[in-house]
Amino acid sequence: MAEKQLETGVDIELENPADFTSPEVLYQDLIRSIRKYHPSDDISQIEKAYKIAREAHKDQKRKSGEPYIIHPLCVAIILADLELDKETIIAGILHDVVEDTIMTLGEVEKEFGAEVALLVDGVTKLTQLSWSMDKVEIQAENLRKMFLAMAKDIRVILIKLADRLHNMRTLQYMKPEKQKEKARETMDIYAPIAHRLGISKIKVELDDLSLKYLKPEVYYDLAEKISLRKDAREAFVQSIVDEVSAHIREAGIEARVDGRVKHFFSIYKKMVNQEKTLDQIYDLFAVRLIVETVKDCYAALGVIHELYKPIPGRFKDYIAMPKPNMYQSLHTTLIGSTGQPFEIQIRTYEMHRTAEYGIAAHWKYKESGSGKIAAGDEAAKLSWLRQILEWQREADNSKEFLNMVKGDLDLFSDSVYCFTPTGDVKNLPSGSTPIDFAYSIHSAVGNKMVGARVNGKLVNIDYVIQNGDRIEIITSQNSKGPSRDWLSLVKSTQARNKINQWFKTELKEDNITKGKEMIDRYCKAKGINYPEINKPEFQEKVMARYAFKDWDSVLASIGHGGLKEGQVINKMLDEKAKKQKKEVTDKAILDGIEEMTGKAPENKKSKSGIVVKGIHDVAVRFSRCCSPVPGDEIVGFVTRGRGISIHRTDCINIINLPSDERVRLIDAEWQQPEGEGNKERYSTEIQIYANNRIGMFVDISKVFTERQIDITSMNVRTSKQGKATIIMTFDIQGIEELNRLTDKLRQIEGVLDIERTAG
């Protein structure tokens, strides 16, 4: 009987109610979901939460025009499908009331207790942000808050993931630029967190939805190609399922066998990582075998390897060596009777629950409340969270912290397993070197490392660790510490962070002295009176802008290259100008011109092919960072003493412009060419990502020759994996010609992607 229960409860789909479903219907859905698994019938608290939320949000509408209450209800349904406790579901219903309505956190606590209030507070987004922060800093601050909340109670992130999943499902009602931004954030942060917590149900859906908005052409192309041969594929999978089921039954093993097509994002990831087309990826589908015990897993594997020929090197035992998110299964790739390869995954029911629901599967249910997670596996699962909180303390500024988190949650990274001399397992990102291994043991081991032995043999420190390697680190007290070259060899964020930390602390004094010298040199070259601006009040503004604790840290950062001396000096000059109330805004300039001439200046044609609103006879230059060409959306930036620089509106330097600098932006547009005789050319830059092969450059240069386009510079880098990055600068008439050129370049064999430089 227990097996049957397992069998039915093992594959609960996350409900996705249709848009414009009425709140009442959704609420009934929610109650039904809770009653499926919850031992008590008391839903009075949930009902109370629903009524309060409905009342609080009654005047609010979503972008789609639906009543706002739809969103918290859908979030609660996802949480109920993950079989979470009532506190979490109540917090899911109320997660927006504190932020968006007049209800306070104190009222939530009074009505529902401290536990629900803690969860709601943890999920409430940061709203009181100072707008002087740029986007990156806002995102980093949000993340900091989220990770701290997660450390207090992991259920916070489960609510946050459910919230993000529903927002992604309804992303079509947002503006296109907002869609891209949200999808990028989901891809960078939320999907990897769901992966780290092992909740593949949510991860898979977030991945696919992000791909749909970030790369719609890839998504719809895959969807079309996969559905094209759907019938043939399903018939093939079914024949394998039937064949395997029969043999497993004969062997006397109780098992459930099913087949599925892999989700789009994992197929796309394989295509990128393995540089293959869809036709070359053979494990588009997987057959899954779910059995009762671990013993049955290995027995079933024996039966299957007898039945089909396994492909060497494609067998993975994640039961003996679980993934960091506690995923366990046996994976083996086999050749079918038709010669078609396919993958089989073998796991127990318990492993299957963990694979689908991750940390949510192990929820220790307590009727009295406080659904805290049991120690053991879960503690191991959250060790990466503690790591992130450590970085948070160590990171000098928000951007650095954000890069660390993104690096650590990297989607495309796989793991490699290796052993210490005593037999402990270490899990490192694929491509790691002995340096990564040394720092994973302790920063002191890494700092004193002078060499390494792998499987008893001495190796170079750039040796790439393979699965199953036994590694011994050789240290010496005479070691002078890590080398800067190591930063280009290490793969793990942890090692990179510890090496940087060493340089910052060890060389801080040197860097401070160097920073002072660089500032002095800069001020002399620019004719700036440094003592005049080197005042504590201006220093504080710089420290606040770049999130440093003291002035020495700013100087040290300039010394080791983290900050440019120009950034610091310009900020201090700005603050001095503000203080003296001598801000010269664009409006003041224009008013001055009007007074002098007696009339407002009109738009005049300029030699540069640019019309700047309200200004003529002014030096216009094209910025090198984003190289705009006719047809691009552009904006002007009033520089100090160098006229107006023209940027693309998607230029990274414009996007990240601090708000106090934004007053210097000015409208600009391309002037209409007079007659056909206008053959003005503009410099632009593109990056081509390709698989390196003989004749690649010949093919690329041929395209340029045919179009009589002059290449002014070219830079090529090739990685160890044979990936080439080609940066080309050339002169072109406008965006249409550029699009035709890139379309032609994309057709060249081996070209993976082309993008324009945006700063």
Question: Can you give a write-up of this model?
Answer:
With 759 residues, the chain is α+β, with helices and mostly antiparallel strands. The chain has 6 domains: 2-214, Hypothetical protein af1432, CATH 1.10.3210.10; 224-361, Beta Polymerase, domain 2 (2-Layer Sandwich), CATH 3.30.460.10; 413-493, Roll (Ubiquitin-like (UB roll)); 508-579, no CATH class; 586-670, no CATH class; 682-756, ACT domain (Alpha-Beta Plaits, 2-Layer Sandwich), CATH 3.30.70. Strand 18 and strand 19 form a beta hairpin. Helix 25 (508-526) packs across helix 28.
How would you summarize this macromolecular structure in one to three sentences?
The protein is built from 33 helices and 20 strands. The protein is an alpha+beta fold and 759 residues long. It is globular and about 85 Å long.
Main attributes?
single chain, about 750 residues, alpha+beta, Hypothetical protein af1432, Beta Polymerase, domain 2, Ubiquitin-like (UB roll), 6-stranded mixed β-sheet, disordered N terminus
